[in-house]
Amino acid sequence: MITTADEDLLRRAIAIAAHAVTLGDAPYGSLLAGPDHTVLAEAHNTVRRDNDISAHPELKLARWAARELDPATAARTTLYTSCQPCGMCAGGIVRSGLGRVVYALSTEQLVELNPESGAWPTVPQEGPALFEEARAPHDAYRRE
């Protein structure tokens, strides 16, 4: 359930997205808050500026949390973001151990506003293959 405090922090994430536009960056903003609603870190999208496809604010904050927070603290945080995290960011959020995500625009709403944002092609994937060869480095890593 989204609380009034959540809405306030979500508005701040939207303001970060709006500020990103004034800097020439894409309109995505996020912040990470502790259980007491204290803002721990903020970020906005810098994909174009950094020429880095991974420079989404949600992924930046997930990486920050993985580096800077112990797992118990990370699990009590909430990521507030102006748009629903994409698949890349969602994977980073899961691996970083963040406790919760609250977003403003859903992916579907974003695509309605900007159809180009949903125009990613599907990349074919083939596999699995070479199981015995591929497992060797994993087996060696676990023996150490």
UniProtKB/TrEMBL annotation:
CDD domains: nucleoside_deaminase. Residues 132-144 have a biased composition (Basic and acidic residues). Residues 117-144 are annotated as: Disordered. InterPro entries: CMP_dCMP_dom (IPR002125), Cytidine_deaminase-like (IPR016193). It comes from the Bacteria. Residues 4-121 form the CMP/dCMP-type deaminase domain. PANTHER family: CYTOSINE DEAMINASE FAMILY MEMBER, TRNA(ADENINE(34)) DEAMINASE, CHLOROPLASTIC. This is Nucleoside deaminase. It comes from Kitasatospora nipponensis.
